């Protein structure tokens, strides 16, 4: 069965009612040959047969992909058209779409807690964190992915789907594809975190690592979707994805009915659109705030220009938000409902990750921490004394990256400082230096001597030290003390205000 091909006339006999939902048919495109045991409905099959059909189709897709040659994969402009995200005909999702999604995905994704935070006292607002990083694959993306998969026609379910994603959408789609026995192909760019790539593989999906950027991965996936005749599911713009993401707002309004504002991390704007449509329908006076990284301010620029606007994106800790062009449906759905849009600096995203880990005991990735980072950066003064819900919408951060982020956050927070002090080379001088700094409660993390490349007298030595201190005030006290005591003191930048 695996290599068989049907011509389109034969395929239509099998699925006469599914024309509209099928991928555009092009001359010469091969179609998935439904196995004999699957000519009725996939839902009617018992579990074993369903599993077998699913595995066979995955094998068939693998074989078809392996057979593709470089000329086959040449990308033309019409290959990049996605019928579900047509800039000429953007779709505005409605509240009914979101309530339908909530009904269909119930039981398949977690209803995550939305609890009052320890951070309320330090921020001057009553903060509630919606903990969607507790979803099985670690992000809110499961909401849209499951709904999009459940909404496919039976033929589309049997054929499988394809997506491009740097991580969370891919993981969500792969996992729910496996649960629902719908074959999934994901194209992930080379910059995707290793953990996310291996998770997708562990869910049994076909994972292709291709492209140096998200845009290249997406273009490749769109081309493949046409070659394989399977549906492309845009992770931030397919209307069913937006509807699924909106289910988060229904939960929020049930959990914190008198919420004043929701601050939403924004990349392609799918979550923003879904949450804004649902929340404003139920509570028109609620404030909806978009928070994005200032290294990829695509939504901000699009709002300024009144249309989705291609925006250059620099590498950011919030990798999930690095989308160069917001979704056309997402923008159309959200643009009139968003009250404010803020762009967050990298240092505050790092500090937000640190605070959430230390005070909230929550491991949150950069994208998921962006809303809280906006509060820490002081970008939302109008929310003082208000009830604010902030989705912590993803927790997928590589352990090695987490280590590096925490070091940067400690430095930005003024709790890790680096200094160079020229001291005497006589016995006891280094001991005296360490004693002096330890009197401030500083812990020495690293220390080194420099003798050769100095211009001072030969009886001097330069000490380079990295110290961990209680806070930036303590760092300042140490700096002032050392300047009085030693002739030459150089402090590395510490604390955000010094950078
Ligand atoms: C953790 C996390 N938060 C927020 C977003 C932003 O979602 P959207 O692209 O729908 O704006 C993403 C997107 O991947 C994400 O992974």
TrEMBL record:
Name the protein family.
Answer: Belongs to the serine/threonine dehydratase family.
Q: Could you name the domain of life of the organism this protein comes from?
A: Eukaryota
The protein's name in its UniProt record: L-serine deaminase
Origin species: Brachionus plicatilis (Marine rotifer)
Q: Name one GO biological process term.
A: L-threonine catabolic process
What positions does the domain Tryptophan synthase beta chain-like PALP occupy?
Answer: 106-394
KW Isomerase (keyword) present: no
- Using the UniProt annotation, give all residue ranges assigned to the region (Disordered): 1-24
Key words, A-Z: Lyase, Pyridoxal phosphate
Annotated TM spans = none
Q: Which residues form a coiled coil?
A: none
Q: Which cofactor does it need?
A: pyridoxal 5'-phosphate
